[in-house]
Structure formats: C-alpha cells, structure tokens
Write a structure and sequence with these properties.
The protein is α/β, with parallel strands linked by helices and 345 residues long. Helix content is 46%, strand content 19%. The protein is built from twelve helices and 13 strands. The strands form four sheets. Strands 8-7-4-9-10-11 form a six-stranded mixed sheet, with helices on both faces. A three-stranded antiparallel sheet has the order 1-2-13. A two-stranded antiparallel sheet has the order 3-12. The radius of gyration is 41 Å and the shape is rod-shaped. About 6% of the residues have low confidence.
C-alpha cells in the first residue's frame, strides 16, 4: 500500500528547513523590558515565567518539529494511487432485433446431436456474442406483432444478456413485424455516430404485421446510415422464411444476409460479424486517486493543541484564576484593601 502513495507537489518538501533558516538569518524581535501589565499574583506565576525564559522544553520543541513536518507533508498532497484501470474506447452502437413470435418455438436447431428450439439456440449464441462486444454500446429490441425496446444502448452487456435470456415467446404477439423492428432501431440509432450505427436483425419468418413495410424501413435506415445485418433462422423445412426480403434489406443498407440452419451455422455467423464489425481495440486508462492530505493535517492540528497545553504562559493563565479562588489568596487581598483604606483615611 505504501508503494502506491505519491505526492502531487513533491517540491513542497524543500520548505522543511524554512524554520531553521528563519531562526538563524532573521534578526530577533526587540524585547520591551518595561512591564505593560502588573498583576497582584505575579509572584505566584514567577516560577513559570522564569522557566519560560530558559527556553522551550524539549517536549514542546519535539511536538513543534513533528507538527511542521506534518504540515509540509499535507501541503505536498499525498495521494493513494490505485492500479491502472483500462477502459476500451467507445466502439459501435449495435442494436439487436430478435424475433420472439410463436414460430421461434420450432425445435429444428441441432447442437451436439440434440434438438432445441430456435429461440433457445438464439439466446445461447447471442449471449456469448453480446458478452464479447466489449467497448460497444448494445441495445435490444424484441418484436412479434409489435416491436418493443427492451434495453436502450448501454455498455452494460450483462444486463442486455439477462433481458434476452428472460424474454419469452408471445411477449410481443404471435405475428412478425419486421418493418416496425427496423424503424424502431433506426429511431434509437439516428443520434449516434454515423460510422458506428449497426443493426443485427434475427427472424425466422416473413413480415406479417406492423405499420411499416420492411423495404421502406430499409430505405429509411439507408438514409440514416444504419447498416443492417439480417439473419434467417431455421432448418431447410422453414417455409415461412422470406429470404429475398432479408437479402434486400441487407443490400440496401450496406450490410449482409446470413442463413443459420443449425447452432453451428449460427456460431459461424456471429464469428463472421465479429470480423466484419470488429470490436474496438483502443483503450483509455486511468489510475484512481484518493487524497490523503487531511490525515497529516488533522494530526498536526491535534499536536498544535498539545503544544498550547504545554505552554507555560497558557498554564499560568489557567492557574491565576484558580489562585483567586483559594481562601488564603482572598484573605491577603482583603487585608491589602483594608490597609489602603486606612492610608486614605
């Protein structure tokens, strides 16, 4: 931990010998021998005053030296510097539109000789794809009869994966609104950097619902410079898949169409997408800094209080009022007052 402590103003330590320089180079202050104040209990304080003339005690000098060192240390601003934290530079603004219509429940995807539903395969592969997109802002749109924004663009890839995993078929309706899904994605991406607007649209059917035709939505995406990669999911007997439309959408926007007939094919598609739209490799790095100057400053203030307490003049100021409360002191004072009254009379 000590190895991580640094000083923001290291040059301040050159001020450490300043009190010695002032002590030997500056002239002494003139002392006025005429007493400006006389008190009746002076003789009770004289031992303390005589001790103060002999010079400061070793304890007060030691405290003063430590106090000065601590003040200089605080002025040098000690800081606890943490380990380097690396953050990737903001990459692409990548929106994923996933079909959750009822047709995605078809168990025609094969993995390790075992059948699984289309939506299960998509969730398994897409989650890994999302986790690997470090540096990109990921958003999620789920669509069926209607399109819904499930997660806005965010760096929180874990949350996006969780929201995709927790989605279920029929949540957005039983039909397929491809055009609406594209239109919603364009709306969410239009304020992002033009070079980084990417939409990955995944479906197993044709457009059967919604207010926007898929090709008109693709024209709008092309105007907004949103690049669309379309993925058709399903085995060879997937008769409802409108491949020509998906191909046209990709071509209009400068993207590419992929066909995923099994889980292995889906994995290859996402790997190809990583190569086509690579993750940003640039990084920003910083080291977290915690200021520590208030620790030596607080200790110095505490030691200053001790120096005052050990000061003879301060102790004398405390003793004098206490002496005035003693019976013997009050008696002498009353005798002196009666003598003065007799002299006046």
């Amino acid at each position: 931990m000590l190895s991580n402590i640094e000083f923001a103003s290291l040059w301040v330590f050159w001020l450490l010998p300043l009190p010695l320089i002032a002590r030997f180079l500056l002239p002494a202050a003139p002392v006025n021998s005429t007493a400006a104040l006389r008190v009746p209990f002076y003789k009770h304080l004289s031992p303390n005053l005589q001790a103060s003339k002999k010079g400061p005690s070793w304890l007060r000098v030691s405290l003063a030296v430590i106090c000065w060192i601590l003040l200089v240390t605080a002025a040098a601003r000690p800081q606890l510097v943490g380990d380097t934290v690396r953050q990737p530079v903001t990459g692409r603004s990548l929106m994923m539109s996933v079909d959750i219509s009822m047709s995605m429940d078809e168990p025609d995807m094969i993995i390790s000789g075992r059948r699984m539903t289309r939506i299960s395969a998509v969730k398994a592969v897409a989650s890994d794809f999302i986790q690997n997109r470090e540096g990109d802002r990921i958003g999620l749109i789920l669509f069926g009869s209607q399109a819904y924004l499930q997660a806005p663009l965010t760096f929180d890839r874990k949350t996006v994966s969780t929201l995709l995993e927790e989605s279920f078929l029929g949540l957005a309706g039983r039909a397929t609104a491809i055009g609406d899904a594209i239109g919603l994605a364009v709306k969410r991406l239009r304020n992002e950097d033009e070079k980084n607007r990417v939409l990955i649209l995944l479906t197993d059917g044709a457009n059967t619902a919604g207010n926007v035709e898929p090709l008109k939505a693709a024209d709008l995406a092309a105007q907004e410079k949103v690049k669309i990669y379309t993925i058709g999911v399903g085995s060879m007997r997937s008769r409802d898949l409108d491949e020509p439309t998906l191909q046209a959408i990709a071509e209009k926007t400068g993207g590419k169409y992929f066909r995923a007939r099994d889980v292995e094919g889906l994995l290859k598609i996402y790997k190809a997408l990583d190569e086509i739209e690579p993750v940003s490799k640039d990084e920003l790095s910083y080291r977290p800094v915690e200021e520590l100057f208030y620790y030596p400053l607080a200790i110095a203030l505490g030691l200053s209080g001790l120096i005052v307490l050990f000061s003879s003049s301060f102790m004398g100021g405390l003793i004098a009022p206490l002496l005035a409360l003693l019976p013997g002191f009050r008696k002498r004072k009353s005798v002196q007052s009666s003598v003065k009254r007799r002299e006046v009379s």
